Known about the structure:
It is built from 9 helices and 12 strands. By secondary structure, it is an alpha/beta fold. The protein has one domain (3-324): TIM Barrel. An 8-stranded parallel barrel has the order 3-4-5-8-9-10-11-12, surrounded by 5 helices. Strands 1-2 form a two-stranded antiparallel ribbon. The chain has a two-stranded antiparallel sheet with strand order 6-7. Helix 7 packs across helix 8 (262-272).
Amino acid sequence: MEHTSIPGIANQISRVCLGTWAIGGWMWGGTDEERSIRTIHTAIDKGINIIDTAPVYGFGRSEEIVGKAVKQQGGRDKLVLATKTALEWNAEETRVWRNSSEKRIREEIDASLNRLQTDYIDIYQVHWPDPLVPFETVARTMENLKQEGKIRAIGVSNYTTEQMDAFSAGAGIATCQPPYNLFERGIEEDTLPYCIENNIATLTYGVLCRGLLSGKMNREQQFEGDDLRKVDPKFKSPRFDQYLDAVFRLNDFAKEQHGKDILSLAVRFVLDKGASVALWGARRPEALDPVASVSGWKLTDSDMETIDSILKETITDPVGPEFMAPPARKKA
């Protein structure tokens, strides 16, 4: 397992992080607590020492499950827990909106500490930018939580470089969490180089693109219940066929050149492009079986050129992850 460092965090962290959005159940067709706990324990046993969650994942459910799993496993001081803040919701109506007010952030920090069964959060991230609260003001609220000992490092998620500049006037940013995968590469133009230049660690999410890059999907794939892939443009015709064609060709390439599969290629791609950490979303222990296959090899410049060619030839109508953004409030 490869490791890296994050400003403000004493432990070296694994470059693969367990993502727990799906474990929360909401927008993923439900959850199984016992299986989810086994998944978290499996990740730790495989050398993953950073777990990312958020209050909105299942409206508290993901954090509760992570808290139980860590309590059962023990060794809290050896783990890095990352969670988020600044979203508000109505669970009955399943509505979510942005709220970076100090009142909301302070409500959330105490609730998250309780659900996670911990005295501190290692990395506390503003989940989405809220245009109704000055970014410098949000940063100062986060810095106060750090001074109070409730958090160790401050992060932002889904922020632009301009928003990070404004935020930095109130507090230093240790981490940035943007979407990034083989199919969604917008951060290569600005966010990724900005973070590298400013010593901000990137915890990239969506690395397997909602399972599309797992290699487990086919053209007859069906999604049930409230699964967000029912509304994800990538999983609708004709785009779905284009993306699957890319997956099949990339899988063949990975096998021929490196003896790997598409999943390993997808994670390796993100890490070799300069991301600090790749979030690996899993809700079953067996989904983590290939973790070891990500380390011990690298993609060459020639590999990257071939990957670009395959993507250009197969995906004629690309689309980003914009559909996942929650709305901003209309007024404070």
